[in-house]
Amino acid sequence: MSSVNQIDLMEKLHRLEEENARLQVLLHIAQSLQEELSLDKLLLKMMEEVAQILHADRCSVFLLDEEANELWSIVAMGLKKGQQIRFPADKGIAGYVAQTGEILNIPDAYKDPRFNPDIDKKTGYRTRCMLTMPLRNKLHDIIGVFQVLNKTDGPFTKQDEELLEAISQIAATAIENAQLYEDQVKSFNSFIETLSTTLDARDYITAGHSRRVTLYTLALSDALGLDEDTREELRYAALLHDIGKLGIPESVLFKAGKLTEEEYALIKSHPQITREILSKIYFHKKLRNVPEIAATHHERIDGRGYPSGLKNGEIPFGGRMLCLADVFDALTSRRQYRDREPLEKVWQLIEKETGTAFDPRCVQAFQLIPAGRLIEIMEQERLQELDEEEIEKLYTVPLKSILEWKRDGAENLAPAERELLALFDKYYERRY
Amino acid sequence: MSSVNQIDLMEKLHRLEEENARLQVLLHIAQSLQEELSLDKLLLKMMEEVAQILHADRCSVFLLDEEANELWSIVAMGLKKGQQIRFPADKGIAGYVAQTGEILNIPDAYKDPRFNPDIDKKTGYRTRCMLTMPLRNKLHDIIGVFQVLNKTDGPFTKQDEELLEAISQIAATAIENAQLYEDQVKSFNSFIETLSTTLDARDYITAGHSRRVTLYTLALSDALGLDEDTREELRYAALLHDIGKLGIPESVLFKAGKLTEEEYALIKSHPQITREILSKIYFHKKLRNVPEIAATHHERIDGRGYPSGLKNGEIPFGGRMLCLADVFDALTSRRQYRDREPLEKVWQLIEKETGTAFDPRCVQAFQLIPAGRLIEIMEQERLQELDEEEIEKLYTVPLKSILEWKRDGAENLAPAERELLALFDKYYERRY
Asked: What is the pTM of this model?
């Protein structure tokens, strides 16, 4: 009897050990998934973790897009951020599971008529066994599908199914949280972008101005190697830098003739109104400098700017960047009554004010922006008409070189340089 | 040897069972906390779950507000949503733990000099033993404190400490997710509210208009018993219903004299511009009708409204609500050149258009709004000057009664009714 007991005990022990291992895996994945609110990163993490836990070669998570009635997934490797694969929500094994809610454990995919071998054909991958399971949220709605491929040690077992089922509950909540969060970010972003565009559009002269200033500022951020958080802060400040113009009567703002002194003073109050409006908005602490950066886009490092006459380091660096981007756009915008100023003239004006209006570091970094990128920003409204190959070529040369070549004169350039300069001029002068 | 083995096995079994129970608790709490992105609800859930798991009478979660250098907590019961207690971040046991990062397991609080008995004095609660532990995020920063009080079966053990430590890691991530999410919601909200106010303020005649229309619409939602999601949708639609005015030149929008036919047509295009602007904004699917509701606030159920001449059910119900709120505000706003119209006259105009401009259900429900609430909305700008007690009295009577009493004449009323009517008139006519 003692030996029978012992066998019972050993069995019980074994079951408990297995159950413990299972719980540890689930707890680990719950904590790991909980840490990601970015949907893309979450999906990648999920796919890696699940493949590892189930000793499988690959795992895909397909999410259901109800409106388009499609399943979509991000691709783990080799594609740009945000790139997706999409297919009809009833196609293939994943589609079957999304429709029926059944769990499919298929030992040999090619023997199953529902299997769609197209993706294997494209990628050269060879699917053998697959375990596919619906992802259900807490309301038990199907929000997507887990698909695990090619277990290294034989077909997927009943235990694998159970484990994946427990994981998919945890995964579904994590996905819904990330979606809710990203929805909010998307709402906030689209609202600011729409408002910025709408405000610009009130006057044909400034149409597209804030958007271009934003893109120049971001290009400058890249040239300076600024981090992602700073970039975000600059993006919001740039999109909203002129929101204070809402506080100035249109009769003054859009006056065609010469402004009186009073009217000019009113116009010059717009950065201060920008500050007042933006100060009422709650920005996450990572973005806390947005109002101050936006409000200082007309300050000059020599202290002769407005509204506060701040000097050098008193102006946040972002404000100094905006200042340059703002003037560059003003100088290179086409006005109804005239063409774009020649680049040499534009740059002379900027160099003349370097060290007085502009921070020399900003001016230097601005010249590192690829010429192709500058053209794309200047020609935002005709983006579809640009020749992709030509723009790509212009991406290989910084503004600095264009400026040097113009100084040297086309006749003194190597043929390749001459070609690039001509290409730049073609787009700059809008002869396309 | 067999018996020794058996004892070993039993011990091992026991440890495994304990570990198993522990893992199940942690997994349960990870899943449970993961489900809440609303910070208030999350904290409540956390406090309940932890008290139960540790067999304790109470649990509080204090969060660190770095900017104010305070610890704060929501109170579980008896207080309104969002109400908080706050104290300096170095006060009491919780403050000590937040500062030092130590875990304090105190068997008798009253024998510890760091214990602050003030809260017990106020609440009549008697703290005996307490376990207090820092909440650390994944960067190991202290973001708050867990405090568990009065274990039912004796003082807290070492095992309790270990369990709470594991829980607090899970809890910290859940809290940070909820904070990030709420930060985004707060940003979006504050941006829309600020913009709405800023747009209203462009013209003194409409100052505060969108805000009041929003408040009337929400009061009407409550009278109709609409759910929280619909209320949110209406709130955004109301705040933004006039954003399309951004597309109309101020020279027309604010023209003092008579409008030409063309100018009038331009003005009448503003709801359509509202639709165009709002359609570019990404709204979560719960809020998907915001553009359509906002764009139909000048439609009439008889089809004679603008911009589309929609009829009855073609107009979303929210649009019909906005329409009434919009007109009610226009009729009850004080203009520079005249006082507020008498309420009888306002209501006559509304009744005259009930069934033609206004949906009778909206007009009926509007009369159920407490008179005190209407006064608070009308007198938004002087909210501080209202007598709280008097307004509370006016909260006991719906607009319907005020209108009936006015029809009956003050001389035919009971003294209590007469008093309430006089109170209403005092605020309505701004004699305060």
From this structure: 0.88
